[in-house]
Amino acid sequence: MTEQLKVLSLFSGIGAFEEALNKLNINYNLNNYCEFEPTASKAYSIIHNVSEDLNLGDITKVDETKLENFDLMTYGFPCQDISALGDMKGFTDEKGNLTRSGLFFEAMRIAKYKKPKYMVAENVRMLASKKFKNDLSAMLKLLDDIGYNSYWKVLNSKDYGIPHSRNRIYIISIRKDIDDGQFEFPAPIELTKKASDYYDSFASEDHYLRESDMKYLSEFRLKKKYSSLNSDVIVCQTTKQGNLANPQNFVKDEKGYRVMTSRELLSLQGFKKSYADKLLQNGITKEQIGKLSGNSITVDVLEHIFKNLLHTNYTIK
Ligand SMILES: C[S@@+](CC[C@H](N)C(=O)[O-])C[C@H]1O[C@@H](n2cnc3c(N)ncnc32)[C@H](O)[C@@H]1O
After folding, report:
1. For residue 246, what are the CA distances in angstroms to 174, 240, 268, 287?
2. For ligand 1, which residues put their CB under 6 angstroms from it?
C-alpha cells in the first residue's frame, strides 16, 4: 500500500504540477487549487476534470486554519515584478507595499501553519540574478526559519526532452525533520525531438500573418532570439503570445507564415494537445490559451523533479 499524496496547488494557472503528477501516475488527491483569474480557473477545471468548487480563489483571503492537511504544496507565484518583461520591483514597491510577486509571502503564511512535507516553487530565471540576490536570500531565509531545507537551480526545458528554450528557477523545499539530504536536481537528458514534431497539419486562417504583421519576422527579432521561425527549438513562450500583438514562435507552411496553434503551444509545454481542443470547445479563445500556456511551467521538467523528490515514499510509473 503506497501512501496517497495530498496536494494543495497555489497560483494554479492550468496546473502544470498536477499534470506532471498525472503523467507519473502518482496516486494523489487534490485538496484544493487556488487561482483568482476566472479564465484560468475554468481552464484548470476542464483540464483536470475537477469542480471549480475546489478553487480557493484569492490567496490573500484564504484562511489557513480551515485547510485540510496536505503533503505537497505547489506555488508557481506571479513573476510580473521579477520578470525582465515586467517592472522588476521585486517583492515590495516604492511605498513598501507587497507587489504581485510578493504574494510569495501569502504562500509562506499557509506553509508556516500547515507544514507540508514538500513544497515546490517555480519562477523566472531573473530571480537568480544579481538584481534579486537579496530577495532570493530573504526567501530562502524565511523557508529556513519556518523549518525547511531548500534547494534551487535554474533549469532549461530543452534539457528535459522538450524543444522549448525556457530557463526557470525551481525551488524545492523539504521539511527538515524528513529531509535526508539526498535530493538532487535531475541531470539534463539528450533532446531527441524537434519543434516540427509538434506541428499541426491544419491551422485556421486567423493564425496567418497579414502583410502588416510581417515586421514580427524581421531579421533583428529572429537574430536576437525574440522570435523563432520553423526552428528546432522554440524561444520561450510568454503571456503575450497567441495573438498577433506580440507573437514569438512562427511556422512557415505552404499557406504562408503563421503563429502557433493552441495545440502546438500547449504540447510544447508538455500538456496534451487534446486539452486545447477541449478548452476551445468550452469557449476559451486561442489568445487566452496562449496566455495560459505562456504563464505555465513545462510539465516535463516537473516530472523529472518529482521523480527525484518523491520516489522514496510514493510509487511512480
Ligand atoms: C505564473 S502563474 C502560475 C501558473 C501555474 N503554475 C501553471 O502551472 O499554469 C501565476 C498565477 O497566479 C495567479 N494569481 C495571481 N494573483 C493571485 C491571487 N491573489 N490569488 C490566487 N491566484 C493568483 C495568476 O492568475 C496566475 O494564474
Report:
1. 39, 6, 18, 11
2. 11-16, 34-37, 40, 58-60, 76, 78-79, 100, 103, 295-297
